[in-house]
Design brief:
By secondary structure, the chain is α+β, with helices and mostly antiparallel strands. The chain contains 16 helices and eleven strands. The protein folds into two domains: 204 residues, Cytochrome Bc1 Complex, Chain A, domain 1, CATH 3.30.830.10; 190 residues, Cytochrome Bc1 Complex, Chain A, domain 1. The protein is 45% helix and 19% strand.
Length: 421
């Protein structure tokens, strides 16, 4: 059973007792990321994520933070998304108090030492360079910019060089005060734990001051005269593309229909994209259709690494799969296979306390509720063949089609001509 408590200051604590494991994951989820940034501070959430590991009062520097977890055989990391930032420590059950203590000191007592900030600038600039030199990463960000333009969801989480080189201790303190507030943070603990015991520990170790006001994500506005294609003409041995559409949000009633649609199209090695574009036509090495879900929008897209001499053929083949699934019913057996695949993957994933912590924290933070896996499976099972076609018809429209490409593209106008239904 998933259990939840709301502390007097508004902090939410959610636990899941997993008796079959000796591991425990402690995860802090904050509503932050590029969705909560202005252009001037784009990238501050990601930089701040790094700075929380630089030390507080009980663990005074990076060596002491990492040493505390390494010394008990634990693992820890953090990540920055568009709408959240997460920090987790995974340890053996009898070492849970150490995990909580380390995360508490990071969150409550971080110093943001200016000398450490200056050191970390170089680290993050190299991280930015790595992504820009890796077309598989960069093309995805370019696709998001096509969908959302010069708005928070269209910006890279890593931010700009200008921000990385200029952000200060006071900037971090202000962003922390604005975003790391009790009503904007969820703490989840998964493993063989007792809910009441956890709530008491968290209440003592995370005395977030009660916030004056909540902080809201910036709304997304429709683009005027949106571009359909974003090409970076670069000499590469393989062209990297993302081709797709804006999609439904986390709260949309057809959320699971969209997810199952993506599985049928390109979710695994027996999907349509894989069999028809890769296997039958030999046009790509990797190819996958995936979904993104945000509070008020989303995306469904296919990314692929394709032969530089047959880019247009690959794009045409991907579009053909979109057109076909929107024009005829998928067989009932194919839909059921997608349901079985997705449910099987989720079941296996949630054997891990780290994955389960993420599963419930994301729901609680973004949707203010936490559904069990059984409830989610029941909603998936209700999706019909007619739903899949209706959703495909709604999403896969020529005026919504977008293409991002990095590689030796040749004639860009020829690519624009094939973005047709």
């Amino acid at each position: 059973m998933i259990q939840k408590a709301v502390l007097p200051n508004g902090l939410r604590v959610v636990t899941k007792k997993l008796e079959s494991t000796k591991a425990v994951t402690v995860l802090i989820f904050a509503g932050a990321g590029s969705r909560y940034e202005t252009k001037e501070i784009n990238g501050i959430a990601h930089f701040l994520e790094h700075m929380f590991f630089k030390g507080g009062e009980r663990y005074c520097n990076t060596k002491e933070v990492s040493g505390a977890i390494d010394g008990i055989g634990g693992s820890f990391n953090a990540f920055t998304g568009k709408e959240y930032v997460g920090y987790y420590v995974k340890v053996a059950r009898d070492k849970m108090d150490t995990a909580i203590d380390v995360l508490s000191d990071m969150m409550m007592n971080a110093t943001f030492d200016p000398a450490e900030i200056d050191k970390e600038r170089g680290v993050i600039l190299e991280e930015l360079n790595m992504y820009q030199d890796t077309p598989m990463y960069q093309v995805g960000w370019n696709f998001e910019n096509l969908l959302y333009g010069d708005q928070p969801l269209g910006w890279d989480q890593i931010g700009t060089k200008e921000l990385i080189q200029s952000v200060t201790h006071d900037d971090f303190k202000k962003y922390q005060a604005d975003l790391y507030t009790p009503e904007n943070v969820v703490i989840t603990i998964t493993g063989n734990v007792e809910h009441e015991d956890i709530v008491e520990k968290i209440g003592k170790m995370f005395p977030f001051p009660k916030a004056v006001k909540a902080y809201s994500a910036l709304p997304i506005h429709p683009l005027e005269n949106p571009e359909k294609i974003h090409v970076v003409n670069k000499k590469t041995e393989q062209a990297h593309i993302v081709c797709g559409f804006e999609g439904y949000s986390n709260s949309h009633p057809d959320k699971y229909a969209k997810k199952l649609l993506s599985i049928i199209l390109g979710g695994n090695m027996s999907s349509r994209m894989f069999l028809n574009v890769r296997e039958a036509k030999g046009l790509s090495y990797y190819i996958q259709t995936s979904t993104d879900f945000f509070k008020d929008t989303g995306a469904i897209s296919t990314r692929a690494g394709v032969d530089v001499n047959r880019i247009s053929l690959a794009v045409e083949a991907i579009i053909e799969e979109y057109k076909q699934i929107a024009s005829e019913d998928v067989p009932e057996q194919e839909l059921q296979k997608a349901k079985d695949y997705l449910q099987g993957k989720m079941t296996l994933r949630l054997e891990d306390t780290e994955e389960y912590a993420y599963f419930i924290a994301q729901q609680e933070l973004l949707m203010d509720e936490t559904k069990t896996i059984e409830e989610i499976f029941a909603e998936m099972d209700e999706v019909t063949v007619a739903d899949i076609r209706r959703v495909a018809e709604d999403l896969f429209k020529e005026d919504k089609l977008r293409l991002a490409l990095i590689g030796p593209c040749g004639d860009e106008k020829e690519l624009e001509k094939i973005l047709k239904f």
